[in-house]
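Re: the multi-chain job from yesterday

Posting the exact lines I submitted so nobody has to dig through the queue logs.
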Amino acid sequence: MKLVIERRDTSSPLLRFGAPVVSIVIALFFAGALLLLAGVSPLEAYREILYEAVGSLYGLSETLVKATPLILSGLAVSLAFRMQIWNIGAEGQIYMGAMGATWVALFSGMENHWLLMVGMFSAAFICGGLWAGVAGLLRARWSVNEVIVTLMMNYIAILFINYLIYGPWRDPQGFNFPLTAQFAEAARFANFFDTRLHSGFLLALGCALILYLFMERTIWGYQIKVIGSNPQAARYAGMRTGASVFWVLFLSGAIAGIAGFSEVAGLQYRLQHGLSPGYGYTAIIIAWLARRSALGVVIVSLLMGILLVGGDSLQMLWQLPIAFVYAFQGLILFFLLGSDFFIQYRLKLVKGIHHG
Amino acid sequence: MVEILLDATVRAGTPILFATLGAILNERAGIINLGIEGLMLIGALAGFAGTFYSGSSLIGILAAFAVTFVVGSIHALITVQLRGNQIVSGLALTMFGIGVTALFGREMVGQTIGGLERLPIPGLSQLPIVGRAFFQQDLLIYTSFALVFLLWFFLYRTRTGLALRTVGENPAAADTCGISVSLYRFLAVTTGAGLVGIGGAYLSLAMTPMWIENMSAGRGWIAVALVIFSGWSSGKAMFGAYLFGGITAMQLRFQAIGTDISTHILQMLPYVFTILVLVVSTIRLQKGSSQQPQGLGLPYDREDRK
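And the result, structure tokens for all chains:
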């Protein structure tokens, strides 16, 4: 008897949809083991997460609030994925987008609500886009590894924001806290139903729709898909792959920048520390889980929103560090990668074959 | 002044050096590891906790190596046995490392340990300029000097090293010669992870003898970039790591004497420099003055053999 690995000719749809679900369940189990080791009952923790995130209307609204930046940054990362480009820098692009929006809100002198909204949106779009565009330019011109560049740009972006809020942009009336002045009413989103849910959520859904149409119904979307799946064929067909690399990363960063705009205009009303507690990193797992689909990004973002709302309450109840959520996300990715193997291959016991 | 700066350079460069050597071992076998940052954190916590509970920094160092060796086997299992995407698996490892160390590091926050002591080498340590930086250091720094040589010797002067490089360059050819691709790759990934873990332990045992959440602060990513800079060779990795050590030392020096430049701007230096180094070394790579292992990043499946 011998165990052999055999490639599957076809993989059933049941397997394709079932495998991620099973992976998440196993990841939940292992994350529970970690919680147990850290002295927290996993069952109580999971009940608490569900209760806080979907157990009440307010909890649900909080889940949508968390899902908003996740949808936007998830779309950003997944757009780059379509071209086999890794944008690990959504975190920094969120911060730069927030910076652009903050500049317009505080220092442009505009007072009209709609003018401000358009101005803040454009500034966030451009700042986020240019921040990712650096990596795009380096990748297009010299094939510099975009994973490392986008990641380094995260550290630089957050230090630059620190420089601003500890220095020139610090609120003179802020008792020396590292934050900017609050935005005027005209520079804020509307809220819904007396909750923290704001128009940013609709903006995120709108972006998902636009991106879907862009990818499926335009020539540019088609080009991105061709370059992503077969760069040589794309070059033969006369597509300019270099320029596309730059523009895709620019657009990807711009969408992440909008997430920053949405956070400052809808939730925080100022630029400060912890604007994004790692949304840009969670976006990577969202994009990977969503498998190229804008709708998938929205669904997975909602699931991750539950996890983040729950994570916040675990932090308050048991003083668990919020970074624990990362450990859980890492586990999900591990098992998801493992499950891919069983979608592509099957293990088979074979009789009577030696030295296979 | 020069003596002190050089000493600080070597000390700040050592964690990056260990991490880069570990990553070189990974990539020489054809496996990209973007989990270096997470592994460093795990090594830092394991090293600190091991030292804290046993009272011996030697046990702490061994704990760092052992724990990261085991955690590294997750990446090895996924990328080698299960042929999963190496980039995603590495990122997952980094996320896992950040999260797990935040969770289990809570009890270690605020604790103190003795830290690694300096062991001056008689005679040599009295040399002007270089004496303090290279011969009045701690055990781990001497180990890193030896490791730079040993890794080179292993890769270029032993049969096993040749086999490992073949696995990284052309796994199909290695397989035909009867070399077990999966065994070599698995052990290269786990042993490399162990070295990265020792680099992490250097942070929490010697540089700042305490545990701080997320204390690696991007050094793991700098190491990933340095692998390309080094052209996958251990000697140049040492040069690169000390280059970054020097930048860190200068940045701290600037902060200490007080300048008009904001500390936040000064802290950007290593990250900006990483990008510059990466651009220069990528351009050199394309000109052919160094070459990456041909099988890098590709899973090996015997059925695909041509």
